[in-house]
Design brief:
The chain has 261 residues and is of the alpha/beta class. The protein folds into two domains: 3-58 and 210-257, Quinone Oxidoreductase, Chain A, domain 1; 70-205, Rossmann fold. It has helices spanning 15-18, 60-63, 69-79, 99-109, 121-130, 142-149, 165-173, 212-223, 239-247; strands at residues 3-5, 52-54, 89-93, 113-118, 134-137, 155-160, 175-183, 203-205, 231-234, 254-257. The strands form three sheets. It has a six-stranded parallel beta sheet, with helices on both faces. Helix 5 (121-130) links the parallel strand 4 (113-118) and strand 5. The longest helix has 12 residues, at 212-223. The two termini are 22 Å apart.
Length: 261
């Protein structure tokens, strides 16, 4: 049976690991496969069998994005699930490798209305295909359009999967009172956090990938055909082009390296 490994496997004995939260292990144990002998090597050393997760009938290549993009978005959405009640709104900024899965996860877990935001019209078309209810093209009028779509109330959950100064400013401007702004994108943007500029009782969260139970759950969602990672298989010869398209935002879904191609 094919397996994947939990690349955020912690020490296994601290309080966080005991709760299944190896992603925030107090010992900050280095993950296997994250550097030397990483995901592009023929083999990696997994130091403990407890890090191995069976995939059942799932194709390992199709399931590959679950270990990062799927797990990260699932963890963030699951933690904000109490906000995603009937009548609520989730705004998703960035519909790429993370965002295309986030749409499907929210649809699987909640009745929330989903508004997708991206700078590429093709990504917004893709978002509708995946189940988003509305879309807004990123730009100077995006905040006004989003406020209008939410009747000026803002979103109960804003997922920023880009993380630039501009997207964080947009996320802050369309957040509802008691809303949660979740920063997933790691570009390095800065959110100016001033008391009077944040909606009342709102919060900002920076989740760290996901827990082992989260990983089991996102695999189960995929096995139940409730979410489908969209992948493009590339070989070593296509790596440079794949990275270039990913950097320019032209890559649809996730690229997965298949050495045999």
């Amino acid at each position: 049976m094919p397996t994947v490994f939990n690349s955020l496997g912690g020490c296994g004995h601290c309080a966080r690991c005991a709760e299944g939260e190896e992603n925030i292990c107090e010992e900050q144990v280095a993950a296997p496969g994250g550097g030397c002998d990483g995901g592009m090597a023929d083999y990696i050393i997994v130091d403990n069998v407890r890090h191995l997760i069976p995939l059942g009938t799932l194709d390992p290549v199709t399931a590959a994005p679950l270990l990062c993009a799927g797990l990260t978005t699932y963890h963030a959405i699951k933690n904000a699930r109490s906000k995603l009640v009937p009548g609520s709104t989730a705004i998703l900024i960035g519909i790429g490798g993370l965002g295309h899965l986030a749409i499907q996860i929210i649809r699987a877990l909640s009745p929330a209305r989903i508004i997708a935001v991206d700078a590429e019209q093709s990504k917004l078309t893709h978002a509708i295909e995946l189940g988003a209810h509305d879309t807004v093209l990123a730009g100077p009028d995006a905040a006004q359009s989003l406020r209008s779509l939410t009747k000026d109330l803002g979103a109960n959950l804003v997922l920023d999967m880009v993380g630039t100064d501009e997207t964080l400013k947009l996320a802050q401007s369309v957040l509802a009172r008691k809303g949660v702004l979740t920063l997933i994108g790691a570009v390095g943007g800065v959110l100016p956090l001033r008391f009077m500029e944040m909606p009342r009782d709102s919060s900002v969260v920076t989740p760290c990938v996901g827990t082992l139970p989260d990983l089991l759950e996102v695999i189960a969602l995929t096995a139940s055909d409730l979410i489908r990672p969209e992948i493009e298989r590339i070989g070593f010869a296509g790596l440079a082009d794949g990275y270039a398209r990913m950097k320019s935002g032209k890559l649809r879904g996730r690229a997965v390296l298949v050495p045999s191609i």
